[in-house]
Amino acid sequence: MSEPVAFLGLGIMGSRMAANLARAGVELTVWNRSPEKAERFCSEHGARFARTPAEAAAAAEIVFTMVVDGPQVEHVLLGPDGAAQGASPGTLCVDCSTIGPSMTRTIGARLAERGLMLLDAPVTGSSPRAEDGTLTIMAGGDPADFQRARPALAAMGTLIVYAGPLGNGQMVKVINNAVAATNAAVVGQAMLVAARAEVDLDALTQVMAAGSGGSTMLELKAGPMREHDYTTLFKLAHMLKDVRLCLEEGEAAGAPFEFAAMTREILTAAMGRGLGEADFAALIEVLEATAGVTLN
Question: Which of 2, 42, 90, 193 is at a distance of 20 to 30 A from 256, taking alpha carbons?
């Protein structure tokens, strides 16, 4: 692609996504809240360093954001030194954070007042897929903006889905994450039932993986739950945020999601145990306490 890009936010996911843009030969400027991380990224990937989001946006025609939540996206794009302060009219902002459709539409309207466009393009796949450029990306916004961003998105993901108007990508993402978290909780409970019944867990997981009980969460989280290895691929606190967003949007639409509500309570209890920075596989700690048994 020929348009220069700014990438704002070099956390677990953002640093890997931006690295794939650099490897694809994109003219890249980066900003991060911690300047030393951005400087290190630039030295490793040949990108340009920016001291503020505004400075980064001034050198770009497409501006990507990958930060934690809605308030951070709002600050990075619309704050005193935000990207909107440096961007030229016609600049396309692409938000890969997960902030929910309502916040996305609010930010999009404010950007439009400045002649800037917004595409929401949240991602799924966790850090390993961010690293190898095989993320799934779901986008919402104007179809022309989607096509404009697609070459850059293709450097970071293999399945790129247009979900409809602005905010629809966010809605797809939070529903997906609510399902994933609920599935992880069910996998954990299933193993605890087996443990209580003195069933071999290897036998259980092998049969489930080969049959109708198989799932991505079984594949990714059963082992870490049994080993109590919560090396962070996706923070529990972030998963709780996404589940809450899904429930809020569902309630606004008049659509209950009781299973996700139960998962929210499990994740909230895990937060109370100080597990917010751990991978969300750590929800097993709450389930073990309730069941009175520990996996091994």
Answer: 193
